[in-house]
Automatic annotation (TrEMBL):
Listed PANTHER family: CAFFEOYL-COA O-METHYLTRANSFERASE 3-RELATED (PTHR10509:SF14), O-METHYLTRANSFERASE-RELATED (PTHR10509)
Protein's name in the database: Caffeoyl-CoA O-methyltransferase
Pfam families (UniProt xref): Methyltransf_3
Keywords: Methyltransferase, S-adenosyl-L-methionine, Transferase
Length: 311
């Protein structure tokens, strides 16, 4: 009964979305148009459930509830490939998974405790070229949380841009903490450095201007293998595997390596998308699945992050 209730609630929640609230991108892409019409069917269904129907007598309630539930399930299953309605897959015990709608994501963001300095940096970066590359506030909060849970003191970031994720990490490091921040673009690093200063964390951040591979290799040559607690990869996607191999040397057993963009705008699961970047991310995800050197958890946050723990 509880299951049934949550099932209905999930559908009603999705169903209460109005047609004008559907993501524009999904309307523009033929692949998602099917989802749109399916969801609209749910919307229609949800709007036609009268409260009286749920308050009927016990026996008819069960009957009607079952009847309704079947109907919902049928509808839901028919649109389980949608990017933004719930999936309800019998192969996974009918576990329902909610995809983020713009409204629900807005709710998630309202529940992020974004430090004021990060908000300012995000605002300043918004007008800059490449601002969409920044991790989202909920992702940054997760990174900071992981660093705190680990009690990390020594971290590495590959791909700094204007410093949003690195600042989120530096803010939660202890005073003795150390973050190696690798970035090849001097101009965006200038913004990052300004914000490290403003936030009073410059002493924790060791900025490495140049190609990340060179910086990581020189850390290894410097005898720093096994001395880092946490690493975040967010640079050239086709290089992910190479960064990962070097970071696996630099991170201690029990340390974490987090990789961003593992879902690559959803392209990784689309067999019709086969551009070089998508293929390389897809292949790397497959390799990680088989990699016994790490435990893994792929998290559908932002553009997807995989958290790897070195064994
Ligand atoms: C996705 S952005 C990083 C965003 C950043 N983590 C944030 O949340 O604001 C990727 C960055 O990686 C940098 N990058 C790409 N290839 C690189 C390389 N080979 N070495 C160093 N930095 C690189 C780019 O210049 C860009 O600033």
């Amino acid at each position: 009964m509880v299951m049934a209730n949550s099932s209905i609630n999930s559908v009603l929640h999705q169903g209460s979305m109005l047609p004008h609230e559907f993501p524009l991108a999904s309307l523009q892409r033929p692949a998602s148009f099917h989802s749109f019409s399916s969801t609209w069917a749910i919307t229609n269904g949800a709007l036609h459930v009268s409260p009286k129907r749920w308050n009927c007598s016990a026996s008819s309630c069960c009957f009607r509830f079952r009847e309704c539930r079947c109907r919902w399930k049928r509808i839901v299953r028919s649109c389980s490939t949608s990017e933004f309605v719930i999936s309800n897959d019998e192969n996974y015990s009918n576990k329902q998974v909610v995809s983020l709608t713009p409204r629900l994501y807005d709710y998630v963001l309202k529940n992020v405790r974004e430090p004021e300095i990060l908000r300012q940096l995000r605002q300043e970066t918004a007008s800059m070229r490449g601002s969409q590359m920044q991790v989202s506030p909920d992702q940054a909060q997760l990174l900071a949380m992981l660093v705190q849970i680990l009690g990390a003191e020594r971290c590495i970031e590959v791909g700094v841009y204007t410093g949003y994720s690195s600042l989120a990490i530096a803010l939660v490091l202890p005073e003795s903490g150390h973050l190696v921040a690798c970035e090849r673009d001097a101009k965006s690093l200038d913004v990052a450095k300004k914000y490290y200063q403003l936030a009073g964390v410059s002493h924790k951040v060791d900025v490495k201007l140049g190609l990340a591979m060179d910086s990581l290799e020189s850390l290894i040559l410097n005898g720093e293998a096994g001395s880092y607690d946490f690493a975040f990869i967010d640079a050239e996607k086709k290089m992910n595997e190479k960064y990962f191999e070097l970071l696996l040397q630099l991170v201690r057993v029990g340390g974490l390596i987090v990789i961003d963009n593992v879902l690559w705008h959803g392209k990784v699961s689309d067999p019709l998308v086969n551009d070089p970047k998508t293929i390389s991310i897809r292949n790397f995800n497959e390799k990680l699945m088989e990699d016994k050197r790490v435990s893994i958890s792929m998290v559908p946050i932002g553009d997807g992050m995989t958290i790897c723990r070195k064994r």
